[in-house]
Each structure stands twice: as structure tokens, then as C-alpha cells.
Amino acid sequence: MSVTLEPEQIERLFTREDGTYQFARWGRPIVPVIFGVEEQSLPPLKGAIEAIVAMVGHTMAETDPELGTNLMIFLLKDWEELTELDGLDMMIPGLGALVPRLQAAKASQYRAFRFDEYGAIRAAFVFLRMTGQMALRPAEEIGLDLALKSIADWGPNAFATRSSLVRGADGVGRLHPDFAAVAQAAYDPVLPASATDPSHALRIFARLQRN
User: Fold this and answer.
1) Which residue in 101, 149, 171, 195 could disulfide with 200, CB within 3.0 to 4.6 Å?
2) Domains, the chain
3) All residues at 6 or more sequence positions from 68 whose CB lies less than 8 Å from its CB, including other chains
4) E-strand spans in the chain?
């Protein structure tokens, strides 16, 4: 796997809009559930999630003892549908104000994380608006993209200049090797589940050099 990232680039992957560094990975087994998808698309979507979880060395489970499911994925045709989902406003504070912002930005996806007392991810809500190019993508590619972006709390501009996927000569979309390598390194058991010091990016970089 050829990785081309420098420490400063890794740091930017987890830098917030106010310039602070904030990293978090899952601190518990992942239990996904997918809403709004046709039955034939479920296996490739779930298979992609399983592949990413296995790639970073994390685990999945049948149920979360506290939440039941902790990775909730919603496929929508329009952001307005968010306001029609029962109980969602209890899980996503400020939902009423969020929908107009997503509509104005013509966003195609949105993620919201919840964290435990140690700063690790305890739950994630993923929303995909299935219109335009997104609706034309194979389920496997959609699954890889959403799984990679949900395996850690990436910064808001992490994927601004390069896609999470690259397309090979065979036309199949696969994980970008840089993002895959960073995700794997970030799940090294020696590293903390959350970090706010930019030196954490150097520790990820050091592990990339070993591979």
C-alpha cells in the first residue's frame, strides 16, 4: 500500500473549523442498522461496513447493551424527510435548524457522533441523500464511503480535496490507500481512543512508516 501523507496532512484530517485538533474512534463494538434501503442493497452495504471494521481491527456485535444499535444509517431522497422521522429530534438536537442548513448547502450526507466519558465514539447517526450521482453509485461503494467516514470522527475538511474512494482500471471503486492506512493506524491498540493534542497525528504517522 503506497501512502503519501505527511504528518501535517494527517493533522489536518482531524482539525476542526476553529483550528483545534480532535480525534475519536469507536470505543465499543459497532452495531449497525440501515433504514430506507431496498432489500437487495442491504447485503453489500452491511458487507462494506464489516470490511472496514475488520480492516481497522475493530469488532461488531449483534446488539449494544446500552443502545441496542449504535450506528444508525438513514438513506433519504430529501432532507425534509428528517423532520418526519419519529423521535429523531430527541437524538439529534437542533434538528429543525439543521434541515434548512443541509438544504441550503445542497449537502449529500451528514454525520453526527455521540461520545462516551472517555471521548470515544459511542454512537453515530449517518444520513445520505440519495439523489443525483449518489443515487447512481453501486451499493458497495456507498457502503465503503459511509463506513470509512463513520469509523472515526474525521475533520469537516478531511475529504474536501480527495475522495474516500479511488477507481481502478477495472472501474471498481476502492478505498483511497491514504485514508485506509490512517484509519488502520489510528486503531492501533497503543493509541488512545480520543485525542485533542496534535502530536497524536505524529503517532499515527509513525505507524504508517512501519507498514
Assistant:
1) 195
2) 1-25+154-211 (no CATH), 26-151 (3.30.379)
3) 31
4) 23-24, 32-35, 71-76, 109-115, 121-129, 165-167, 173-175, 194-195
| Per-position pLDDT tens, the chain of length 211 | 556 789 999 999 999 999 999 999 999 999 999 998 888 889 999 999 999 999 999 999 999 999 899 999 999 999 999 888 878 878 887 887 889 999 999 899 999 999 999 999 999 999 999 887 777 888 999 999 999 999 999 999 999 988 999 987 787 789 999 999 999 999 999 999 999 999 999 999 999 876 5
Angle at 137 between CA 60 and CA 14, to 5 degrees: 55
Residues near 9 by beta carbon (within 8 Å), at least 6 away in sequence: none
For the residues of 144-203, what is the DSSP string, one character each?
HHHHHHHSB---TTTTSSS-SEEE-TTS-EEE-HHHHHHHHHHT-TTS-SEE-STHHHHH
Q: Cα separation of 70 and 114, whole Å? A: 9
Q: State how far the Cα of 196 lies from the Cα of 198, in Å rounded to an integer.
A: 6
Give the integer Cα–Cα distance in Å for 114 and 66: 13
Distance CA 102, CA 96 (A): 11
